[in-house]
Amino acid sequence: MHRVALAGPADFSGWRDAARRLARQGVDPADVAWMVDGEADLFGALDPPIATLPEGPAFAVPRGFLELAETAILHVDPERFALLYRMLCRLKTDHDALEDRVDPLVTRLGRLAKAVYRDIHKMHAFVRFRSVATEAGECFVAWFEPEHHIVEAAAPFFVRRFASMRWSILTPERCAHWDGSVLRFSDGVDRGAAPDEDKLEALWCDYYAAIFNPARLKPQAMRSEMPKKYWRNLPEASLIDSLIRSAATRSAEMVQHAPSAPNRSPQRGRAAPAPTAPAGSLEALRLEAADCRRCPLFADATQTVFGEGPADAAIVFVGEQPGDQEDLAGRPFVGPAGQVFDVALQEAGIDRGAVYVTNAVKHFKFVPRGRRRLHQKPNMGEIKACRWWLEQELVLLRPRLVVALGVTALTGLRGTAAPLASVRGQALTLADGTPLIATVHPSFLLRLPDEKEKAREAARFLEDLRRVAALAKAA
Amino acid sequence: MNLREKLTILADAAKYDASCASSGSDRKHAAPGPDGKGGIGSTEGMGICHSYAPDGRCISLLKILLTNACSFDCLYCVNRASSNVPRARFTVAEVVKLTLDFYRRNYIEGLFLSSGILRDPDYTMEQVVAVARSLRVEHGFRGYIHLKTIPEASEALITEAGLHADRLSINIELPTETALKALAPEKSVPSIRRTMGRLRLKLDEAKSEQHLKHAPRFAPAGQSTQMIVGADAATDRSILDLSANLYGSYGLKRVYYSAFSPIPDASRKLPPAAPPLLREHRLYQADWLLRFYGFSADEIGGASGMLDLDIDPKLAWALGHRDRFPVDLNRAGRETMLRVPGLGAKTVDRLIVARRHRTLRREDLGRLRLPLGKILPFVELGDHRPTRLLDSDRLAAMLRPRPAQIELPF
User: Fold this and answer.
1) How many CB contacts within 8 angstroms connect chain A with chain B?
2) ipTM exceeding 0.90?
3) Least CB-CB distance to B357: which of A100, A234, A260?
4) What is the pTM of this model?
5) Is B16 on the interface with A (CB under 8 A)?
6) What's the domain count of chain A?
């Protein structure tokens, strides 16, 4: 039998050194007794120290085991050292044994680690500092009673958070102290060593009472997250009983209370002045379209994305509908397809600032998928409903040339559907005689998977835009 | 009015906002830098609940209004213009000091600041931003800050709010536009949506540039919203449809559901009633199914448009789709396993790793302390087949909670 005496209840490095030597020698877990210094004396003379064991061949353990062991070893369960050693011996022969996460030993160790994490988390949550005036200035002191051996593991959090304060956390087993530059630990103390009040606690209790909603009483839910064992060190917990007792009466009063007359001198605000524009202008049309409900698409979209560009633009480009980015920004052609469009325009020698861009349908049609939205093609009804705006835009703009980008735009402009291939590049006209050119929508180029085809289609698109530039000049 | 009275009024005025999250931000800490000087405050990813009130809600942030004076008359709100509740107003300096004093004593993770609408949106937003600015710039505060965003506020103020805050939120308030018009006449859905859209664009921009050294910071914990449940006639289905839309459109971190709760001095047009807490709970469960379990709103909305209050929405779905079961836990894919009642996402991942090492049996599930009564009728294991039970008419009855014993006065 090997007896290992560890320096303290949370002596991870002592456990690791001993466990490593024992495991390398292949010592059976049943032949090792683990104890914390002090306990060892009860068993009389020790065996030869572990350090005299010859080092056996080294073996590697997965990183996850070290994390598990460092945490689980802080548990108060007296079997933790032996359980971890058993796991270590198993890992020696089966490197992936920790992955069998329903195995009894793995689940048991997992549960120990979880309890320790929870205890650390609760310490981070429930420590309550009290301000104390000292010769060196203000110092913050807390009294806390952790369940496991976690003070040293929990302390660095307080350093990261309260670096500019001087503080001490006192517990029955270990105390942590921070003086603004060095973290120090000392032996445990009695509760009496900690201050028993802070003038701010009255204010904190007022807050606690006021934030509680008596109409939603759920004391069980509170207790599961803030078990009673913590209450005696939480100043606000002294209010719990009375808040629970009065809750039913308070909420019944709110329900039964006869409504009073409305406040006779309510706060008054300034509503932002409604934007206005000269009647018959593009701007006026844009404002009108902002409230469009001519088809159901408005309900799911963010906003109407109206056309954009100078009122005297010679060329009007009509796209399909706004996409995700356009819907968020409220402006047409600002997303990925808009960027393709901008580059092509520039190459064709067309100044984007001098043309008017708009869409056949002015709300984004989509279905939500998790954190994204999938574009949906507008149907005939939606296109027709939206012609109302497109036609008025064209009447006000009276462009020299209209360009339909894609088949939806073409449908919106002409009122009937036709395959794009049959009319692309032809000299078409709108009902009022305005020349019309049809080409693809720039998003078509984005969707092509084959690079060669993409290059070919981009060149065709550019060719179409060059014709547009030439026609606009000639007109 | 002294500080205690103000705090009581302005915390009471803020408690109907359900959000208290302090998680998911970037990592900041106050440990001494090269100059040897430490600051105050940290955020480390996981939020901390510093206390719990007897309503079961976590207290993580100092959740207050800057003022409860408000020119809006939202009928469901305790602070509406026509209410007779006492009014109070903090100064910027008072909120800053209170936050730091509470923070130093480890009562809170930070501040959640909202406000009634005074004068106009920009004036109000400027006051809210001034608090965050003072905390961050003057006091080097690195704790968590959540700011309520006023929909019509100017671009510059929203940008500055995002620079200082960890999270921003705008409440959508009600599930339908009709209800919002009726109950909150000064608010507008388009204006709320437009601002959520603006926030999303800024959040995306900050995220795409975060690898750059001097990239602008913008609300690293994202945006969230809240919907009041039970103040209008909207169905659960329409609520979930709206949530799916908001998650997809604006990348929200969370949609909070807040059961319409009685308030002091309620409006006569919207009489108070006990809050529908169970309905709220089912909506949260359904929301989880939307976000983490691959369900869509039309699958869980229920035939009547309302979620079953007796059983959780996943169990309700499974009972309605018995042809999809039993699921073989030793072979099924993750997506399929996520649809098994009683199995959470973490458990599913755990089982998938473990089954590479063994054939899963009943005792293995038992060791994980899972709700076997709910799971076993729907799964196959190395030593378990539930076929007869699945076909039984009695299965639904077995899984529904038993009616509570009627207690007679003695």
Assistant:
1) 278
2) yes
3) A100
4) 0.94
5) yes
6) 4
